[in-house]
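Need the bound structure for heme C, inputs here:
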Amino acid sequence: MDSMEVNKGIAAILIAGIAFFITGTIGTILVHTKPLDKPVLAIAVQEHGDTGKEAAKPVALPPVAPLLAKADVAVGESTAKKLCSQCHTFIEGGKNGVGPNLYESVGQPHGHVPGFNYTAGLKAKEGPWTYEELNTWLFKPNAYVTGTRMAFAGVKDDQSRANIIAYLRSLSKNPVPLPAP
Ligand code: HEC
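Answer from helper R.:
Posting the output first, comments after.
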């Protein structure tokens, strides 16, 4: 190969490089990338600033009984399907996901699904899930069980929470009686 051939070879590589650069630049000019208004996949994350310290503060919630008395199970169901079904199933015999199956959970002991890998803090809670406890839990899970793996900020609206609890109550052959309002 003489030096002329080598030069041709180098020139060819340079031209290819320049062409590649130019098409890239034109491409960038022609195709305006627009950021999405909303993320395609909404992932529930803990609220910003949800620290363990903050979680230690007790919450004073209005009593749940009067809210349960006027709760709407169907609304609770659709809210639960929206907010919880990425991690929970609700039907009898449903599979565990990130969270345990929630059929027949009201009135059952904390950590009611045998074999599910609960956090120690949740397992350590004594007694059954009462309506008041579910209310506190769903308001802010990380305040009720510090360090819980239920990575969910909570439902802040009192009636929405009661609607969800009323729906959880209905997931039973023998629902726990509602408390007197
Ligand atoms: C990001 C996943 C995720 C979301 C969203 C979520 N959960 Fe959970 N849930 C979990 C996990 C994980 C646990 C187990 C927590 C532990 O062991 O500390 C749990 C536990 C529970 C328990 C206790 C069950 C038992 O057997 O003691 C209830 C009740 C519950 N979740 C209800 C809900 C409801 C209602 C919603 C929606 C409003 C919801 N969760 C949203 C993951 C989730």
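Comments: The first helix runs from residue 3 to 30. The helical segments are 3-30, 52-55, 65-69, 73-83, 120-123, 131-139, 141-144, 158-170.
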